[in-house]
Amino acid sequence: xxxxxxxxxxxxxxxxxxxxxxxxxxxxxxxxxxxxxxxxxxxxxxxxxxxxxxxxxxxxxxxxxxxxxxxxxxxxxxxxxxxxxxxxxxxxxxxxxxxxxxxx
Length: 104
Fold this sequence. Notes:
Layout: E1 25-31, H1 50-64, E2 73-79, H2 85-97
Parallel strand pairs: 1-2
């Protein structure tokens, strides 16, 4: 049985690898610091450190699945304008349509 580990600086130290029931992992991380001004209201405040948090979350995903081959792990970090609704719809639709049954 794998040890329970906390997520943080000591991410997965001493964790036993688990048996995977999937062959590939794809993750999308959205990090918005600068929101687009809505057409019907005031602009939202900036979100300090959202980019750094998104990068850290993506790195945590990479560490969790470090036992997978490089070509079996795909982590996309979309920041600000890259994470528009249209871009997310396109990326997610394409990715989901191309997932195999044993892909996460």
